[in-house]
Amino acid sequence: FRFGYLKTSGVMALDQETASQVRDLLQRNVLSIHHDAAVQGLAVSGCAKAASLLDKCQFNLGREMWTRVITASKQLEQTLLRLFDGEQELDRQVWRRATMLGHVYSAMASLAMNDPSAVLRSLDSGFIVGGPIELVEAATTVMDATKDNPISDSVVSSTVSIKPPAQLPSLESPLQRIAAEDVEAYLATHSDVPVIVTGLQSTWAATKEWVSPDTMVARFGMRVVPVEVGVWPSLQEAFMSLQDFFQQHLFAPTATDDTDADAAQQVAYLAQHNLFEQIPQLKHAISPPSACTAHGQQLRETNVWWGTKGTKTPLHFDTYPNFLAQVAGYKYVRLFAPEESSQLYPYSTATSISGASDEPQTPTASVEAAARVHKYAGKGNVSQVQDVRNPDTKRFPLFSQTPFMEGILGPGDTLYMPREYWHYVEGLSTSMSVNFWFDGE
User: Fold this and answer.
1) Tens digit of pLDDT for each residue in 19-48?
2) Strands 195-198 and 177-179, sheet pairing
3) The dihedral of CA 30, 137, 16, 77: what is its sign?
4) Whole-model pTM?
5) Beta bridge partners of 438
6) Distance from the CA of 333 to the CA of which of 99, 126, 198, 260 falls in 20 to 30 A?
7) For residues 20 and 1, what is the distance between their CA atoms, to the nearest angstrom?
8) Are 297 and 439 in contact (CB under 8 A)?
9) 248 and 390 Cβ atoms separated by less than 8 Å
10) Are 226 and 239 in contact (CB under 8 A)?
11) What is residue 172's DSSP assignment?
12) How far apart are the C-alpha atoms of 48 and 213, rounded to whole Å?
């Protein structure tokens, strides 16, 4: 497979009315509200240089020195990254607010320079680091104003076939499977038992649109997303355009066949990201299972999990029941009941991580340390066991004795997981999934 649509940066321009609307929204609802508080927070934290750079962004913007605004915002971002990674303690909220404002100032300058692609990149980056919903509103306005140039619904391409692995893992304790029409009846009596539901997404537009890379790149390629590069716990998070993510990782030439390209292909994962909030134009392509809102229940959060072969979500549990819907590709899942927690070696606040020690481990380790290496860590909800399918029995002697359920998710399959059920997920191929957390029994 090769991309036919390689660029999204053709002649794009915003009309004056749209640019003015976006500029007023950002000035009134973001900059005017957050600038002074961010400068004060940086000053109190002893970050005088960052505070000065933020004021410089404002100063240059007021004098319509657009390139100087962008230069100052880049210097601010670099300064804040050094502070965040360094020894100086900086409150996370202060860091997020200041970083977000730097991206917004850059977006304002790009608006004045009539560069919608740069505006979208800056707005996305600001939202990802914790910016307010107004950044999404501004980005949506820009997208709507440029949808025919070149982000066009008329751009179409053939779909990509993601082949299943030549050799699927053998299953010792396979999960039960039920049809979509039986899911609500099943949950009425078995809400505490995981199950694979078949056919829930049979009407989703995502099953065709998302595996049409030319179409996705043409419409959304300039949008920026947070991608995990590598495998837990050795992860690095990078911001990249959806075009780069699709072309260099998800649908790279060797990514969708069954060749052994592991050495050449870097594992990359757009994981646990609410892309539908960031890009509302994608919402039409999915539909939450009706069980998420039946009997007064409420849908809590929807995330995408798009990744290459080799992605691994560490063994952990969530506090809400969950539907994991497989749109494309294949994943292996293994689940453990909540009552097995004591044998799964969860991180806790009791002791520190023992690193690569060969000594047998007690089922505890530092949750704070876990939080530093991955966002899944919480209050003891992440297991220390990294290789679930081939555990180190010397370090984790109880783990291999623990009963589990497992399954293979293919296109059209949806895994239901009760709250607090431990689960491990591994990408067997290029894979595109969506999860729905909801209130349950």
Assistant:
1) 999 999 999 999 999 999 999 999 999 999
2) parallel
3) positive
4) 0.87
5) 299
6) 260
7) 42
8) yes
9) no
10) yes
11) S
12) 45
